[in-house]
Amino acid sequence: MYLKRGNLQPLFPASASAGGLVPAFNSKFALFFPVMDKYTLWAITLATFFFPRIAGDKVAMNLNAAWPPLSDRILPVTDALSLIDALNSRFGIPGIVQIVSGNGGLPKVRVTSRLASAELYLHGAHVTSWQPADAEEVIFLSEHSLWEDGRAIRGGIPVCFPWFRAKADDPHAPAHGVVRTREWRLDSINAEEDGSVIVSFSTESDASTRRWWPHEFRLLHRVTISATLQLELVATNVGPTTMRFEEALHTYFRVGQADNARVRGLDQVAYLDNMDGNRRKIQSGDVVFAAPIDNAYLNTGGALQLIDPILHRAMRTDKVNSATTVVWNPWQQGAAALADLGNDEWRNMACVEASNILDAAVPLAPGEEHTMRATLSVAAE
Predict the structure, then answer these.
(1) pTM of model > 0.85
(2) Residues 184, 124: contact at Cβ < 8 Å?
(3) Which of 35, 125, 204, 238 is the most exposed place for a label (fewest CB within 10 A)?
(4) What is the tens place of the pLDDT at every residue in 351-381?
């Protein structure tokens, strides 16, 4: 059986005559239904008029739609709900891991172990939830996020590659690179004896990425879920020339009140203030959130702590092979310009991001591999 692609509409246009329905169906769909009697054909024909398809969150019936191209009307069921079933059959672990239909119908990996729970989308290899046992949710996720192919999820931990922010030489290129808005492959899920769960995703260059960036690459995003959350982004140059890329694990932490939160571990560190034309400045004391902030801290290899006195906790980030740290909050002004962020949601988020951006962009020769790692943990404060 096959589902239809595109907007809600019946399989046949309303203008088709009763006598022409079965012949039209038989001629256009003989490839998919080579043996079928007239009663079966009539049953399928009637079903197409009275059984509308769900597209995203909206249900409608458009009986006056023109006949679209066949290639846009036929979609194997395995590209819809049965894809979830196939993934669950292959990767699910009873009582621990389940692949389900998430927001917008996007495939989601749901992990529930004795150490933590988490949710991860194949869309962008995107972590949207991590909650250690006996603790509150650590990750912020916008209630206004757009769950659509080609659109980024607002909140969670987006993977930015091979550039960060806008592309320096092309203002029309997608912000934060080419991998956060595409569906990644789910490669493996393993439940370890220590109670941790490891989920691995991968993606690689293709025609759509070469439109914006000419290099050949392969990316692996390995996420280890336990009392800590470990994120590993592994980039491999599979092309014939050296490539230079930026990368970030754009972590949105959930906080009780942004203007009470602060980041510890960056005192006397130089940074570039993106809100002030990337002027170079020196941090004095803890980083506080009192206005829009978009700072890139340089040469930062040490541990960082996001202190939240409202939720009485400190969220720590330990980094490996990450030379820069981005601290961001759009504040009221910036949030108002983002359609996928509620006007007041900025109050409950603070981004502290492991990254390699600007002059810390990574050069990678053909055949070489680079791994950036961030490990998140939470302690009472």
Answers:
(1) no
(2) yes
(3) 35
(4) 999 999 999 999 999 999 999 999 999 999 9
